Amino acid sequence: MKKQGFLKTTIFSMMLATGSLILIGCSADSSSADSSSASSVYNIGHGYIDNGDGTVTDTETNLTWMRCSLGQTWNGSTCLGDASRHNWQTARDLAKESHFADKSDWRLPTVDELHSLVYCGIFGEQRQRLLDASGETVWEGSSNLDGRCEGDYSRPTILNSAFPNTPGEWYWSASLIASPIGDDSDFVRGVNFYNGYDNFYVRSNSYHVRLVRGGQ
């Protein structure tokens, strides 16, 4: 989660916690990016540094993110096209195959890393986020401490100047949890960028993907 103007929010967690063209994923449009834009680096604000290659670095976490979701194309100034949806295993495979901004160590973010992108805007507030030892969000009375945005918050709940044309929908993380219904299937946590909260879903569902590198 990012600083919301004067409001500083903190992630609480007790959990253990892809330039070349790629066929399915965030790609770079070489026809629209010249050598000067490819080498420029500047501060977008809110802790993000634009690396000039379709990526940003978060100075609070030292993680480097693709500015576009998989399926979109970076044209030097924005993300074009529609973000694609994938089941969780396909998302993992695409991350391993991704080569972007001269890097090939892209991966799915953990749920904590993904949730660190949540931005509620200058008029929104962010609920505390707290996970128990099993990776599930904690309830405090009638409130689920899931880190969602509240009040007059911006949608999607992400900084648009850093991540343009992001759908306000679900994104996969790499964080598995045990099945809450007691069968043998695994559930995976994701973040909803419509209102900024995280939850878990079965791996066969199809959601959006944003890749990261660094950390861990």
Summarize the structure.
With 216 residues, this protein is mainly beta. The chain has helices at 35-39, 88-97, 111-115; strands spanning 27-28, 42-45, 48-50, 55-58, 63-66, 73-74, 79-80, 124-126, 138-140, 143-145, 149-151, 170-177, 187-192, 198-202, 212-213.
What does this structure look like?
- 41% of the residues are buried.
- With 216 residues, the protein is mainly beta.
- It has one domain (27-213).
- The protein contains three helices and 15 strands.
- The strands form five sheets. A five-stranded antiparallel β-sheet has the order 2-3-4-5-15, with no helix packed on it. It has a three-stranded mixed β-sheet with strand order 1-6-7, with no helix packed on it.
- A hairpin with a 2-residue loop joins strand 2 (42-45) and strand 3 (48-50).
| Low-pLDDT segments | 3-24, 30-39
Instruction: Give the total of beta strands.
Output: 15
Q: Gap between N and C termini, in Å?
A: 18 Å
Helix content: under 10%
Rg (C-alpha, Å)? 17 Å
The major β-sheet equals:
5 strands, antiparallel
Whole-number mean pLDDT: 80
Indicate the overall shape: globular
